[in-house]
């Protein structure tokens, strides 16, 4: 059944957080003592400042919370350890209850009918109580309080489940003994029907969202391929850029003024060597006078020209260096 599946799969942490949120929503002056574990709710009843300490066990809300009242009071809902044990909302507490409403109902009960403090002579308490006020040792309650608590408990049960008024005693007995019948009864309760409708609505919205996402899948796939093509083109451009950068660096080094100056110096030395070789050829009789004069003058002129250019360029570079360039 849908309600049972929902109860079994509900996230415990989210449910615990929701319960704590209801405590802060329905009550004022809530102080956190230990996150997700212990809280204190302050209020006033009968001119006395009072507090309810709310302790949440590890399995809460599957387990009931522990509520402890301070100071010690004489009330049928509170035992001798100052723990609230007989409040209707606490007796009927389930994972579907609201912790904030339960505590709110207890505070309203104390505000409407301020309980006497144990040991308070002016509060109209019986002299049969023990004298240990601070130890919460008094566990006896007067018959009027017991009858009042029972009546309030029965009234809250009827108000919580008005559908029970239409059932006979035999039907109620059968309902309490049959888990399937109880589940069927719970499934027909208005809050559960509302919850089931909300779940169905959420499922429908999720299905619509999933279908919408599927319709966008071809477009996303097309965009993915487009991005992949652009990445490949970017990789090609990157390789080309790196190759051109290397070529630019090579040419930049080659045609730098200092490189040109060095090239002129080496070229002048090469021309000098060639002129020396021509002179040796002339001395060994391998070339004529006319050939020697023509070739030798050409090489010496070229060498001198290159040396002149080298010296001029070197002078210009020194001036630029002195100028800070």
From TrEMBL:
It comes from the Eukaryota. Residues 192-254 form a coiled coil. InterPro entries: ESCRT_assembly_dom, Helix_hairpin_bin_sf, Mod_r. Transmembrane segments: none annotated. It is a peripheral membrane protein. Pfam families: Mod_r (PF07200). GO terms for cellular component: ESCRT I complex; late endosome membrane. Belongs to the VPS37 family. PANTHER family: EG:115C2.5 PROTEIN, VACUOLAR PROTEIN SORTING-ASSOCIATED PROTEIN 37. This is Vacuolar protein sorting-associated protein 37A. It comes from Zootermopsis nevadensis. The lineage of its organism: Eukaryota, Metazoa, Ecdysozoa, Arthropoda, Hexapoda.
